[in-house]
């Protein structure tokens, strides 16, 4: 009797021990649980509508938009399963069923209406409001269907919605806006845990995430503003991903063990814009000459170490809707440049200047200096005027940027967002072209994709002929990552997507 | 004594007012917070709302008056970046900076005084050359460069310490050393000079003649008489140390007031900048008061009224 009782107890003990051992082994051997990202800056405020991209990068960890983007920049269904244009002004969105917020409450059409109404309220200063400002009204059709009316045909609506994370109505109503900012909550891959201002943002995996539970248990975003410290933290294994790697640190990272560089073409087109209102740049021959005088390939190879792409005689990067594959980059031809300058009456060259910020874009000052050197070879003496951001924005507002200024325009995947800066409506364009303006308006007022594409292709041709700027590079986004990291690809829009990322054990 | 403290405190508001005026005017004249803060796609209404909220449509001096009125009522205004009152944000960060500054100051004073005494006692001998040489080298080394070198050595090669960030005491070591090196050379050289001046005084010779041991001579007779220049220097350097902490905080991702201030200046976030200036200015004034009191305690010839 005694014996027969003892045996099952021992058996069960053994079984428990085995289970525990397996669990411990699994925890140690299979995967590391915490993924730490070294970011350049964390926002100072967890308000979803806070204006910087860094804030959006945090928001999309805890919240999903209706439309998702992938790392390459393509849109795909998010909280909306599908959508359809009913007519030129009406869009209907079918929402995903069975999606739950972090507190277990279901996501419904009410949450979409609540979020959009909040953002579009007249007194709202929501950061990405401009991306969807053409929405006139949001109507709940049933619990999983929403209808949006737009003020005018709004072809960039779908792209714009991918920057609008959806907030939980019941939660925000209960805890107030301040409560939501203090403790953000949504349907996203990670749950908010803790935020230490200027130091770290801690998140835990959402096991019920509708796209599958994240592979890591914990995600930490650490603010490390100094780039060389960021690189050191990656080499030391304190972080597994670092963003914004400057070019001069690439050699050190490439040499380090357990670290690799991942770079991707962003949608930022870096250009040197002419003030076409004043001589000498009111003459198209001079503008073309300067485009021919810059050896862009050499700068790309030397200063960007081959990261990024050459812009093909247009402001759009090749991953953008509207990119014209038939327009090609200006060749490097100083002889022809000199001839053109002579034809325009500048045989002995002239003095001018380049305005740039420092550290705004990858190697911005170095690139400006290199261009200045190359222009010298065709007789153009261009001084480089480095200004601080505050001064730059004042100059921009006053439309007084000097003869040439270095600027990068985001297209976010759609020509509309980049081309707008060459229209009079933007208040930023020195260059003026009737046909360009008309095409821009036409492309923005139809939801017919083929017609839009045709308009943008023609607009890129016009810019190539009129050269309002020296077209330089599609800037890369450069990340340093640990070789232990699997299923990570660098995002072209700088929004980290980490729900599939896996970290192998050391 | 009390009168001295009161008169010192009375100059504080005037200093603060001048500092605030200069900071405010410079920040307003060199950049438009609306342009910096709002997204490039922001609508015209968004711009107008923010302009009105910040009174940017008024002349700069009127803006300053409005701002000052609020400050007098204890309200430093709402920070643009943080979307809340400015002062609590600054105070929240103050702890990290004080921790760093206090650790660095202690290290610099202790090592500086010891190094200075040793160098003076061994004047023109190897120890003096070594210490004074290191001091000069340290003084000419930019904090920025030193910080990065320390990270390379101690975090990457030896793997003894973390590269950056906060956490345990081990996170404090590298930033403290970097910041202390910024001040240490001055402390060494000033202590050395002060000790050299004292060491030939008659009372030191007398003490020696009476047969006092070297330790007693140095600690009882030389140091108290040599320490005053070091103390005045300490008071003067608090401000410099706060400045130095800006760079150190940036290198080591230390979440203190320094990094907050730099970022806020770039964002033209006037309420934060001015709240931070107030806090730093008050800290400097308090530090100098303490130094005054210490000096009069060490040297009875110094009377504070």
Oligomeric state of the chains present here: heterodimer
> How many helical elements of chain B?
12
Strand share of the residues of chain B?
Answer: under 5%
| Helical residues, percent of chain B | over 70%
Biggest sheet layout of chain B? none
Number of strands of chain B: 0
Measured distance between first and last alpha carbons of chain A: 50 Å
The CATH topology of the largest domain in chain B turns out to be: MetI-like fold
Mean pLDDT figure of chain B: 82
Binned, the helix content of chain A reads: 25-40%
CATH homology-level superfamily of the largest domain in chain B: MetI-like
- Tell me the number of structural domains of chain B: 2
The shape of chain B is globular
As residue ranges, the low-confidence spans of chain B are: none
Structural class of chain B: mainly alpha
Low-confidence stretches of chain A: 1-8, 21-30
Biggest interface in this structure? A-B, 44 and 44 residues
Rounded to the nearest angstrom, the radius of gyration of chain A is: 26 Å
Largest sheet of chain A: 11 strands, mixed
Question: Which SSEs are present, and which pair or pack?
Answer:
The complex is a heterodimer of chains A (506) and B (305).
Chain A: H1 2-30, E1 34-39, H2 53-62, E2 67-69, E3 75-77, E4 80-87, E5 90-95, H3 109-120, E6 135-142, E7 145-150, H4 157-161, H5 169-182, E8 190-196, E9 200-205, E10 218-223, H6 227-235, E11 241-242, H7 250-255, E12 259-274, H8 284-293, H9 296-303, E13 309-310, H10 334-343, E14 350-356, H11 364-376, E15 380-386, H12 389-397, E16 404-410, H13 415-419, H14 434-444, H15 449-466, E17 469-482, E18 485-486, E19 502-503
Helix pairs in contact in A: 8-10, 14-15
Chain B: H1 2-29, H2 33-37, H3 44-53, H4 60-72, H5 86-121, H6 126-139, H7 143-157, H8 170-199, H9 202-209, H10 214-251, H11 257-266, H12 270-298
Helix pairs in contact in B: 1-12, 5-6, 5-8, 5-10, 5-12, 6-8, 7-8, 7-10, 8-10, 9-10, 10-11, 10-12, 11-12
